[in-house]
């Protein structure tokens, strides 16, 4: 209960800093609690970088931002062996991935070799350089961003790498009232600087919160609902025949695990000690958006993955 209060307070404090993007704040905290990585898609200037930097200030964690570019090399993110002539040996110099919170900015601008190195770090929590493998910190979260506007000179992320992201979150512009608050906050920060963050949440508290999230009660009916929803992405024709012509591939078992973890984290973050079907529906789009692949017919007709997920949610009942 105490940890739930602590994270509810963190959620409130982040919401005061990241105005108009509560969805991003919530998904970032869910990724932290569910021990996963986050892919965020949105136009420039929507506080994506500010959100993860603010989170790093409020927890016991260090932060590093990597700007992905077409000329980036794997060693630029993993680190490399440096020769020390005075000692006559090579010494490993850790790269940006050896931080707790890593922002991979415009990840789709990096070539395949860099994405492969990042994939190993995300999936295995380790980095391989030469013949040696180096473990990463137990608290390790990657938030990658994509700009949906400018796609020239980008490299689409392979499905295997997309599947490693716990959630794919899309964010939009804030409304007029939220933007007014952003304007006033920006003036205040320009005059007085960033407000003090207060006592940070320790890493031990983060790990303890993860244990509570993992142990939260989930009824068999909710578990069945998760399984039925994922099965429907693989056999959408059972919902209606039109869906079968739009879905090329459904979610993998990793999608099932992600739905379970995110639904638990969503319920816990909202102060409950049980998971409901509403928690599953609340995070279903973000968990399944990058795991349901469209057919050419769907793309030609302008059908989006979100529209398909809407129909799946409407068509899959919760059994008692």
Write a concise synopsis of the structure shown.
The protein is of the alpha/beta class and 320 residues long. Helices cover 49% and strands 17% of the residues.
Task: Describe the overall structure.
- Residues 248-311 form the ChlI/MoxR AAA lid domain.
- This is MoxR family ATPase.
- Residues 37-167 form the ATPase AAA-3 domain.
- This protein has 320 residues and is α/β, with parallel strands linked by helices.
- The chain has two domains: 35-175, P-loop containing nucleotide triphosphate hydrolases (Rossmann fold); 216-315, Magnesium chelatase subunit I, C-Terminal domain (Helicase, Ruva Protein, domain 3, Orthogonal Bundle), CATH 1.10.8.
- It is built from 14 helices and 13 strands.
- It has helices at residues 2-17, 22-34, 48-58, 75-78, 112-124, 159-162, 176-192, 203-215, 220-234, 241-246, 253-269, 277-288, 296-300, 305-315; strands at 38-41, 63-67, 79-84, 89-94, 101-105, 126-129, 132-135, 141-146, 167-170, 217-218, 247-249, 274-275, 293-294.
- The protein has a five-stranded parallel sheet. Strands 3-4 form a two-stranded antiparallel ribbon. Strands 6-7 form a two-stranded antiparallel sheet.
- The chain is globular.
- The two termini are 29 Å apart.
- The model has no long low-confidence stretch (mean pLDDT 90).
The neighbouring-strand order within the major sheet is 2-5-8-1-9
Percent strand equals 15-25%
Using the coordinates shown, work out and report the CATH topology of the largest domain: Rossmann fold
Global morphology: globular
Oligomer: single chain
Nearest-angstrom radius of gyration?
Answer: 21 Å
Calculate the mean pLDDT score and round it.
90
Name the helicity range: 40-55%
CATH level-two architecture of the largest domain = 3-Layer(aba) Sandwich
Alpha-beta content class: alpha/beta
Number of helices, counting only DSSP H or I runs of 4 residues or more = 14
Overall number of domains: 2
The main β sheet shows up as: 5 strands, parallel
Within CATH, the superfamily of the largest domain carries the name: P-loop containing nucleotide triphosphate hydrolases
Q: What is the element string, with H for helices and E for strands? A: HHEHEHEEEHEEEHEHHEHHEHEHEHH
Low-pLDDT stretches are none
Distance between the termini: 29 Å
Keywords: ATP-binding, Nucleotide-binding
Domain ATPase AAA-3: 37-167
Protein name: MoxR family ATPase
Pfam families: AAA_3, AAA_lid_2
């Amino acid at each position: 209960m105490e940890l739930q209060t602590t994270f509810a307070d963190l959620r409130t404090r982040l919401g005061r800093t990241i105005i108009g993007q509560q969805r991003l704040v919530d998904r970032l905290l869910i990724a932290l609690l569910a021990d996963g990585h986050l892919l965020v898609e949105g136009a420039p200037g929507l506080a994506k970088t500010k959100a993860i930097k603010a989170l790093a200030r409020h927890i016991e964690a260090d932060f590093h931002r990597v700007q992905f570019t077409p000329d980036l090399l794997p060693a630029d993110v993993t680190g490399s062996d440096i020769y020390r002539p005075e000692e006559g040996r090579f010494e490993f110099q850790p790269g940006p991935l050896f931080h707790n919170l890593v922002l991979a900015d415009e990840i789709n601008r990096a070539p395949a070799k860099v994405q492969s190195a990042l994939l190993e770090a995300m999936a295995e929590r380790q980095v391989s350089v030469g013949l040696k493998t180096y473990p990463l910190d137990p608290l390790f979260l990657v938030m990658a961003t994509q700009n949906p506007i400018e796609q020239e000179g980008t490299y689409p992320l392979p499905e295997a790498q997309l599947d490693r992201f716990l959630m794919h979150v899309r964010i939009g512009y804030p409304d007029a009232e939220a933007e007014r608050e952003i304007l006033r906050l920006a003036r205040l920060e320009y005059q007085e600087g960033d407000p003090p963050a207060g006592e940070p949440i320790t890493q031990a508290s983060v790990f303890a919160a993860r244990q509570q999230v993992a142990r939260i009660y989930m009824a068999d009916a909710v578990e069945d609902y998760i399984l039925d929803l994922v099965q429907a992405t693989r056999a959408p024709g059972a919902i209606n025949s039109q869906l079968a012509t739009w879905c090329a591939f459904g979610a993998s078992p990793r999608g099932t695990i992600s739905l379970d973890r995110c639904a638990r984290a969503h319920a816990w973050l909202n102060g409950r000690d049980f998971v409901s079907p509403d928690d599953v529906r609340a995070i279903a789009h973000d968990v399944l958006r990058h795991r349901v692949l469209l057919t050419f017919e769907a793309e030609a007709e302008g059908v989006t993955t979100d529209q398909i997920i809407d129909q799946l949610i409407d068509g899959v009942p919760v059994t008692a």
